[in-house]
Each structure stands twice: as C-alpha cells, then as structure tokens.
Amino acid sequence: MSDDRGRVDNDFSGHSGAVIQAGLIQGNVNLRTVTETPLPSPRQLPPATKGFIDREVHIQQLDSLLDEVELITDKSRLPVVTISTISGSAGVGKTALAVHWAHRVRERFPDGDLYINLRGYDAVPPLTPHEALDGFLRAMDVPAEKVPRDLHDRTALYRSLTTGRRMLILLDNAATAEQVRPLLPAAPSCMVIITSRSRLSGLTVRDGAIRAVLDVLSRHDATRLLRVTVGADRVDRQPEMVDRLIELCSHLPLALRIVADRARLDEERPLAELVEELTAEESRLDALAVEEDDLSAVRTVFSWSYQALAAETARVFRLVGLHPGADIALDAAVRLTGLAPSVTRRHLDSLVGLHLLTRSGPHRFRLHDLLRLYAMERATLDESPQAVHAARERLLRWYLHHTYAAYRAILPQGRPLPDVDVPPDATLDDALRWCEHERLNLLDVIRAAPGWGHHRLGWQIALASMAFFERRSYWKAWIDSHLAGLDCARHLGDRRAEGWLLLSLGDAWWDRGDLDEAGRCYAGALHAAREVGDAWTTGYALRGCGLVDEDRGDFPEATRYAQEALRTFRQLGEERGTGLALMSLGNAQRGAGRFAEALVSYDDAMRVFERLGNRWSQGLVALHRGQTLLHTGEPAPALAAVTSAAALFRELGDRRHAALARAYEGDAHLQLRQPHAAREALADALLTLLELDDPLAADVRRRLAAIDHDDAAGTDQGDQDG
C-alpha cells in the first residue's frame, strides 16, 4: 500500500522533451532536457489472410471513404473522422476483409495503425474501453505512470495524441456502440474500421458511421475461394460436388477454408468423398444444433475437420479450448495438456496449419470464437469430467505460480500466501513482462475459477495479482479481480481470506481517492480479521482506517487508529507494519499540531526502516520529518531532511516523491529568506509534477505564484517609497 497518492486530472500529449501545461506560472522556470527515445509509430495490424477473395463492392466502398479522408476540401463543413462499420454473422469474413483492406492502404497512414480485438462475442467478457485505451496509449509511447486512470481522461489524451496525425484504427469484434465510442479519435485525418456481429446502428445515427453488411459468400465467390485454395483444375472438373460442398459449409469463408485444407491433404481424392463424409457428419450432429446458435451453421464442418485429426492432436485442440482468455501461451497449453513443451508445440503447429488455431504472437495462439465454443463442446463430450477438472486445475496452478513469483519480486516484504509453494526468485523485469503478456487473461482466469469449482485458487490468484495491478496502475483490474476473489472466499466461508481481500480492496479505493469505499473495505477487513484472530490483517486494516480519517482531517481518530495498529504490529513482531504505523502516527500528530510528538514518532519509524534496509520508506520518513520541522520554524534542519529525501528518491528512481521533496526544499529556502533558491526548487518540482500529471502540481504552482506576488508587491512598494 502506498503511503502517498496522486490523482490524474491534467492531460499531457505529444512527443516534446519537456512541457509545462498550466494556467499561469509566474517567475523563473528551469527546464531540464529529456532525452528519451520515442517508440516507432505503432504498426499493429495482424497478418492478412492468405488467398483472400476480394469483396469488390465493399473494397470499393472503403476506398471511396479513404478518398474522403485524404481530400477534405469543403471548408464550409466541419471535418469529422471517417468511420466504417463492417457487420455480419460469425465466420463470414469481417475481420479478413478489414485486415486485407487495411494492409492495402496502410502506407497512406504514415503515423501508424492501431488494432485491437474487443472480444465482443468471445466466450469471455468483452474488453472495456478503459482497457482498450490503455493498450492504445502505451502503443503511442505514453509511459505507464502517465496513463490516466479515468476513462474520460484516457479518451481525452488519446484524442489529443491522434490529433494532427494520419492513423488507421481497426476495432475488431465490437459488441456495442458504447464499447466503441470512447475509442474514436476526433481527428478527420484518421480513419476507423469497426467489425461486429451487430449492426451498431447507434454509430450510424449519432457518429456518422458508414455501414457495410457482409453476407456469406455468393456461390461464385465461394467457388473462387475453393479454386484458389484447392486448385482451379480440380474444382472445375467437379462443379456439382463443389456446389454441394459450398452448401454444406453454409457459404461461410471460415468453414470453406477448413474444407479446402482437408481437400489438399490428398490431391487425388475425389471431392465426392469429402461431400459424403461431411453429409454423414452433418446428420450425426443435427441433435446438437439449436435455433439461433452461431455454432450450428459450421458445427458440421468443424466436427468433420476435428474427426480427421490424430487422436493426440484432437485432445490438444479440445483442452486448449478450456482456456478462458483471449489467447493462450505455449506454456499454458503445456499445463493444460500435461505434455512436453516440444510435443505440445508440434500439435499446436498442426492445428495452425489446419486453420483450427492462429498465431497471435511469439509462442502465443488464439482460437476463433466459434472454434473455441466447438473445442469446449468437444471437451465436454470426449473428456471425462475428472479430466476436465484436472486440466483446469493445472492451468490455474500455473497462473498462481507465475503471479505469486511476480508478487514476491514486486513486494519482497509482502505477506506470504498461505499453503502455496514458494516459486523460484524471478527478476522484477521478467515478472512484469510475464504479467503484461497475461494481463487480459488474468481477470478471465480469476472469474472462471469459481465456475470450475476452484474457489481457493481463485482468491489466491486474485491476491497474488494485486502487486502487478498496483505497480502498473491497472485499478479496474485490481478491483474487479478482488471482487471476484471475494466471492470465492465467501463461498468457502474463509473469513481470513475475505479479510485480506477486503484490505487490499481498501488500498485500491484509497489510492483512487474514494474514501467512502476505502473506509467500508477497511472496516470490513477489520471485522473479519478480528473474528478469526488474524493479527496481520487487523494491524493493516487499523492503519487503513487511520489513513481515511487523516485524509478527512479527523486527526484524533487517525491518531487512535495508528496507536492501535502500532500495538498490534509490535505484539505480532511485524517490523514493516510497525514502521508504517509509527509514520502514520507522526502524520496524525503533525496534522493535530503536536509537532514535538510527531518528530519522536518519525525518529522511531526511521530506526525500524534502517534495521529492515527499506530505503524508500527511509526517504518518506525524512520527507515527513522535514515538513514537520518547517511547521516548527526550523528551516535549516528541515532543508537538510528534505534534501536528503530528494536525493534518495532520485537514486531509487521515484520522480514523484523526489519532486515533492524538492518542493519542500523551496519552502525551506523561503523561510531562510532565499527567494531565488526557493523559486528554483519549486519550479523544478512543478515541472516534474506536471510531467507526471500529478494533482499536487496545483499546490506547488500556487506556492510558486505566491513568491512572485510577494516580489511584485515589494517592488511596487519600493517604487512608491522612491
């Protein structure tokens, strides 16, 4: 849990090395040169489909829209962003069309292209606009610490960054207009392509989107596809069988490609035999078809292709379908199947070759949403319930292993998870890299765990993921994962786990500045922890209640909570908690004007953190101590304290706290009647806080303006005296 926090309410965009964004700054501002190398323009389009059969009408429509983007000449109209929606049923080729056209024209968008699968109709929850914008902003070279937390602020920054740029944005598999609207740029030089099973009429009415409805292939185009994929001579020799294959595939490009791959396995085999097999399989699966089931249209084709797989490859296919996330890593597939990595990789490569799986990145794979549903269906039919349960448990334990390794790397002094094997030490970079790859899957896995009957693993993964979500400011994922974990703990009646999860939820809400929610969670954690005698959670929940009261200005209550937390930690022998409670006690005493007592508490906290070797907390104590000395009118020792804190934070790479310490250096210089040094320190702090979009920049700006106002008033008085 952080001891100080900031809220993002000021947006910065662009690629300047040093920028001050403010209403008014008076006096001298010293700029530092930033030499970071920006990332290249994003190029995120997935590979185009091989052997794509042009949908001429739709290609021409998209080309005409592109001309509008490039030739905005009517100055009497307000230019607007060009939006095209491509809708149609599952497997009809919406994504293939959008990606194919985007590759044709991507060079006409020199500032890059953005792509995201919004998972509108996958087996897992759709991506939220908040999550999608996070990925877009990072792709556009926005550092993690500068990505706003609020959806409105993320949208504003995204639109600022796309203004003046020529970019192509492809939003794939959207569910609703509300999911898409925050992802629309405001720049007329950008173009947006959206695919969805829904017509997204709201975008047409409100946002001026041009709508294209993609139907299944005509017989002519379906024949063209088979001529390209199976072979022109072979198709032309057997027109009646080709027509029957097209009918059995429901004219769907996805199904036709699977059939074509089967046909290519034996070039001498008559197409009539394929028709016979497919017809027999269709009748066998009629009982599984239901009205308005997207899978029904192609289930026969999938089954026919599935039955042709080698037994072990078929098993890999259906077990991979049990993974709940958007894509799956090779190592996760290894855990699901229980096979050696090289063997698993060989089967996955075979599935890719048959279009039953696609590659989504190095050592990562993805199932089309219809294929995922079919694979899950086959797992239910062809695996025993015990085998499915065991495979899911292996997968969950793999996620727990890696999230816990990241937890230990990020929070080495954090509380160990009970009854969980200690993973080998991981470097911080490796841990964060793995978590980023699995970020979208983590929440899906935690949500799936209770439905699989693995409630304990569900809350354990939720708690283990907290360290990563906090470090990277994924606040929504942090809260959502813990709410799901809380349901798991309550299902089990595990009050100890419930208290710990509520404590962590309180931290998330406190960091976001929602004191009401934080207070409720801390109070709930305290009640649960006391009920089961969990002294660790009791101590930290008491301190959390004190943090809320301190922020509300109720310093007597904050003092009481800090003292009670201190007693709890000392009885438990929890050294880090003892130091934090002493620091909280000092803050409450300072807020109440009891400065001498606060200094004693800070000195005691400093000794604890020195014993632990916790240098960051040492810097924080020095910062608070310096603030207190300023209140007591001792600017020289205050300056020494905050200067040492600033140096320590800079060494540890904490720019925010280094800036806060620098601001208090300015206050100390002012008390020492050194206005030039004060102005320099405050301007230096202001620059950094503005770069970080920190709301405390407003207070520093006010302090800086007060110096210049006093200087101006003194000058005016001197002129009058003269």
Number of strands: 8
In the sheet with the most strands, the strands line up as 2-3-4-1-5
Termini gap: 58 Å
- The average pLDDT is 84
Low-confidence stretches: 1-18, 29-36, 73-78, 287-291, 715-722
Mind describing the biggest β-sheet? 5 strands, parallel
Number of helices: 32
Strand content: 5-15%
Helix content: 55-70%
> Tell me, what's the shape?
globular
Radius of gyration, rounded?
Answer: 30 Å
Structural category is: mainly alpha
Pfam families: TPR_12
Organism: Micromonospora antibiotica
Protein name: Tetratricopeptide repeat protein
Give a written overview of the molecule.
This is Tetratricopeptide repeat protein. InterPro entries: P-loop_NTPase, TPR-like_helical_dom_sf, TPR_rpt. It holds the Pfam family TPR_12. It comes from Micromonospora antibiotica. By secondary structure, the chain is mainly alpha-helical. Helix content is 63%, strand content 5%. The chain has 32 helices and 8 strands. The protein has helices spanning 56-70, 94-105, 129-139, 151-162, 177-180, 201-207, 219-229, 232-237, 239-248, 253-264, 271-284, 296-307, 311-320, 330-337, 341-353, 369-382, 385-410, 428-437, 439-451, 455-471, 475-492, 495-512, 515-532, 535-551, 555-572, 575-591, 595-612, 615-631, 635-651, 655-671, 675-691, 697-721, and strands at residues 82-87, 113-117, 168-174, 191-196, 210-213, 328-329, 358-361, 364-366. It has a 5-stranded parallel beta sheet with strand order 2-3-4-1-5, sandwiched between helices. A 3-stranded antiparallel beta sheet has the order 6-8-7. Helix 22 packs antiparallel against helix 23 (515-532). The two termini are 58 Å apart. The relative contact order is 0.07.
